[in-house]
Amino acid sequence: MSKIKPTHIPMNQFPTIDGELYIGDIPITQLAARVGQTPFYAYDRKVIKEKVQLLRDTLPKEIHLHYAIKANPMPAIVQYMSTLVDGFDLASAGEMKIALDTEMPRQHISFAGPGKTDKELTQAIAAEIIINMESQNEMERISNIAEKLGLTPKVAIRVNPDFELKASGMKMSGGPKQFGIDAEHVPKTLKRLTELNLAFHGFHIFSGSQNLNADSIIDAHNKTFELAYRLTEHAPTHPKLLNIGGGLGIPYFPGDTKIDLQPIAKNLKNILPSVKKNLPTTEIVMELGRYLVGEAGVYVCKIIDRKESRDETFLITDGGLHHHLAASGNFGQVIRKNYPVKMGRIRNEQTETVNIVGPLCTPLDILANKMELPEAEIGDLVIVFQSGAYGYTASPEKFLSHPNTIEVLV
Ligand SMILES: *Cc1c(COP(=O)(O)O)cnc(C)c1O
Q: Which long-range contacts (CB under 8 A, 24 or more apart) does 169-174 make?
């Protein structure tokens, strides 16, 4: 008996009409002509908007939604997002520049990250955004800089919780971590914060990324609120803000399924009465990157060559890991798995098993390993789905000195 091989779920956020893929209602070959080059990234604003709407429709209205810019800092996306979400979370002064160029109100922008320089802290204090402090030292530096500027910055404490997000693609909490202040040291940090005359704004408790398991998220939410209640007992004032993190993942690999928002929303509804009792004046924020933009993006490249080697077929494209490290399997994957990949246009009924590789002189430059795909020819477009988050921004574009790619929002 042969085991059933797991498959990718259908990528039905984009329609295929007469065998051709459409992005933003434009046939992909026409879009390529419009962009003027391959490879390129295309992001569909309608898909982004629907994602935000789904969250708004499903989660309790008390949950505010923030966009974590590091998932995709393209200025046009951040600008568009400023009309859809309630706030931004940043992780660098570069991202701060992009965020401040939008109309997003300053009091809804917060800045986290473990290695903020004095220059970045100065900029953030001057911009009057919220700073999520990652260490005691950082707090002392913020206080010194604020004194020189004559400003009172709003500070939140990023907490390294005493639990971890189970079944998560990327764990960022629990145990020893470079992120946040260990939960057990938060009481003394709060005491020092009061001495330093900083404005206590709240807590930021982010426990992980790329999670497809609703039960794990529910467990993390429950523990996050419990921890926030405990820490609030040591705070000079009630927190104005509690950022409960995000962690919602998207399906990338064969066998992955979409995360079910319903039980997560139900659990939040159930615990809201106790949240309102314990934190009556606190705004609750969920910060999401990947979930908002990941499925809205594709990476498009062109087949440059085709060759056989020892019974395997290789399609060689003009795109690869220099633009899309994650699809090559080199960004956090332990065992390489294929992203969903399709041909831009289906020529006929025939399929073949192919390896799709990029132009770089390294065996790591793989976009698809032994995938069954419609027969393709030199010049055809290859589409890598789920590429809206941690794509171009997380790639080593200088490696091998090939031309840069282009990003469009359609
Ligand atoms: C990376 C990051 C996020 C976004 O994570 P996603 O998995 O893209 O949703 C949110 N908050 C913090 C603090 C982060 O570092």
A: 169/208, 169/209, 169/210, 169/211, 169/249, 169/332, 170/208, 170/209, 170/210, 170/332, 171/207, 171/208, 172/206, 172/207, 172/208, 172/209, 173/205, 173/206, 173/207, 173/208, 174/207
